[in-house]
């Protein structure tokens, strides 16, 4: 008969829970006393808010499209005081695409025709909004904490456009995921790093008569496709 075994298990479970109650009963008052002595409030802590981006930084990122096989290594240079943002997008065994975005709404997408680049292409786009502001995550909905890439993160969501993961301890961005399925994993994050001026200049072939002028359909890595973020 299985009955005696079950009752043995029940007794063990009971003893364990009683022990837990005793242990927690003992520790709880101690903590409360400590809080009162230290004059701390026992109220819940307010929801964390995303750390604004540094005004200038350089990040190396691995991008993975979760919807289709597409891997990229991206060098991101963000420069708010100079009103520009540069993404150097290395497609896996493919083109190295330069994406220079200016705060006046003009973006240059080009290749330089080196190696596997596939020629010297350029596309100029005009967006109704400029580059992201350092506080662009303001007003995002806090979703709680979760591990990503092995880091414990605070997680926010903004207008069903982006899910953003920030390290709880260092406050550095670890990961973000766009509604398109494109996801970024931050590999390095150098606060204050600035790219030399010459690297921001779009090449001459962008100013040929033949240079393509695009419409803002293409979703850039950071610039929202609509002015809603
Ligand atoms: C990219 O994302 C897909 C789908 O989520 C996943 O199966 C794959 O392992 C990822 N690849 C890398 C290199 O992270
Ligand atoms: C925006 O600024 C860039 C860089 O100075 C320039 O190349 C581009 O022509 C400007 N666009 C507009 C619409 O003024």
TrEMBL record:
Q: What does UniProt give as the signal peptide span?
A: 1-25
Q: Which domain of life is it from?
A: Eukaryota
Q: Which InterPro entries match?
A: At4g14100-like
The alphabetized UniProt keywords are:
Signal
Full protein name: Uncharacterized protein
Please name the source species: Carnegiea gigantea
Q: What is the lineage of its organism?
A: Eukaryota, Viridiplantae, Streptophyta, Embryophyta, Tracheophyta
């Amino acid at each position: 008969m299985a009955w005696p075994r079950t009752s043995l298990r029940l007794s063990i479970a009971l003893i364990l829970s009683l022990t837990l109650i005793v242990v927690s009963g003992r520790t709880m008052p101690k903590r409360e006393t400590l809080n009162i002595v230290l004059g701390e409030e026992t109220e819940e802590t307010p929801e964390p808010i995303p750390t604004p981006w540094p005004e200038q930084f350089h990040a190396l990122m691995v991008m993975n499209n979760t919807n289709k096989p597409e891997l990229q290594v991206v060098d991101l240079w963000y420069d708010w005081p100079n009103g520009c943002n540069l993404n150097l997008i290395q497609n896996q065994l493919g083109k190295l695409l330069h994406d220079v975005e200016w705060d006046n709404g003009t973006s240059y997408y080009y290749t330089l025709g080196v190696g596997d680049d596939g020629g010297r292409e350029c596309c100029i786009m005009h967006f109704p909004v400029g580059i992201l502001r350092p506080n662009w995550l303001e007003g995002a909905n806090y979703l709680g904490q979760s591990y990503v890439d092995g880091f414990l993160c605070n997680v926010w969501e903004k207008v069903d456009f982006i899910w953003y993961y920030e390290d709880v301890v260092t406050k550095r961005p670890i990961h973000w995921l766009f509604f398109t399925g494109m996801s970024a994993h931050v590999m390095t994050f150098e606060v204050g790093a600035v790219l030399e001026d010459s690297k921001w200049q779009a090449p001459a072939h962008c100013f040929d008569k033949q240079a393509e002028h695009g419409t803002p359909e293409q979703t850039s890595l950071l610039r929202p496709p609509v002015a809603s973020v």
